[in-house]
Amino acid sequence: MPEIGKRHSTYLINSRYPTTSDAKDGYFQRVKAVDDILNDAVRYYVNYGGNVFYPSIRRMRKNAFEIRTSKFNPLGLLLILYVTLSTDAVYFHSILRLRSVFHRTLFLLARCRVIDLHGAVPEELLLLGDVTGSVKFEKIEKFAINRSDVIVSVTNAMIEHIRNKHGISVRTESVELPIYIPCPVASRITKDFSKNIIYCGGLQKWQQVEKMLGYVHRHHSRYRFTFLVPDPDELMGMYRSFYGEDFPGLVESADSHAVKAHYRDNSFGLVLREDIVVNRVACPTKLSEYLQNDIVPIVDFEEVGDFKRLGYRYVRYDSAEFPDEEAWRKMAEENRVVLGKLGDTYLAGVDALRKAI
Predict the structure, then answer these.
(1) Burial class of 1 by CB neighbour count within 10 A (0 to 12, 13 to 18, 19+)
(2) Using CA atoms, how far apart are residues 72 and 51, in angstroms rounded to an integer?
(3) Would the pLDDT of 5 be above 60?
(4) For the whole model, what pTM was predicted?
């Protein structure tokens, strides 16, 4: 339990505590990042996969605890309510966590209400064809924005999107906290130049997988391709169904250590996104990783999140020729400057978040 005699800030985090198996999940990467920022405070997480008959509290790390219960257990729900009323703030990761009336009630009863938007949820659901869900979460989003004390967002573009759509109260603090994984970067570019192209990410609709595979089909005789995806068989099956042949490159699922090794062997990386709200407000982890590993992005829509505003360099996917080694090195060096700006924004966001709650 917390140190006796020492006053800690206390927060209820409406999410289960991330485990090692969640390492590749973007949602839980964000939960873990915020947990690291708030590590001096006492944090209570909520896991509804617990015993249906009795609730329990388990220590996950220093000052971090998980309430384990079932959503059908009234004692467990009362415990969560008690913790909500006792803590300094509640932190909701995504408006998706405000789906239930119970959670919206917790949000209203809290002393300080923090919503981390993660992304444009109503627009994402509409993109996936879930019109009913989109309408529902449009209302929930407005509910959250109108009642939040602190709004946390991955990009300034997301904050502006919300301000234009719902307005933001003058009493509400907005914190820009980009998805940024601090890691050591070599003082100079040491990797060899190549025209090898990598893609590292998921196979969701907004990744434009079919368009990427078309790019591979057109250029595989000129460039070497590596795709690191959660389900290699699915990707290879898609390529085979489109073009009647095997994927002309390497496809595999890789852990973080293997990903770094592949990054060293590639100079360019695919990030194809449509011109839609979901992408305009996003802060793709892979884009930050590409810049950290001196990989110049290949894009079709360049205004993803705040990267263009920060001045990142990229190659258009319909370009007839790639940059030569000298041009590539200059682009990678300029992207390191962008990475530095992103890191500064992240550190300022960390400080602002701690002060706000």
Answers:
(1) exposed
(2) 10
(3) no
(4) 0.86
Q: Do residues 191 and 296 make contact, with C-beta atoms less than 8 angstroms apart?
A: no
Q: Which residues contact 128 (CB under 8 A, 6 or more apart)?
A: 205
- DSSP H helical ranges for 44-196: 74-86, 101-109, 121-127, 131-147, 156-166
187: tokens are 């003082």
Rounded to whole angstroms, how far apart are CA atoms 172 and 114? 10
**Would you place residue 182 in the very low, low, confident or very high pLDDT band (cuts 50, 70, 90)?**
confident
Residues 86/9, Cβ–Cβ less than 8 Å: no
Over residues 234-254, the pLDDT tens digits come to: 999 999 999 999 999 999 998
Answer positive or negative: Cα dihedral of 214, 220, 222, 224: positive
Distance CA 80, CA 86 (A): 10
Domains defined for the chain, CATH in brackets: 10-180+345-356 (3.40.50.2000), 196-340 (3.40.50.2000)
353 CB neighbour count, 10 Å cutoff: 21
- C-alpha–C-alpha distance, residues 125 and 133, integer Å: 6
Cβ atoms of 349 and 104 within 8 Å: the answer is: no
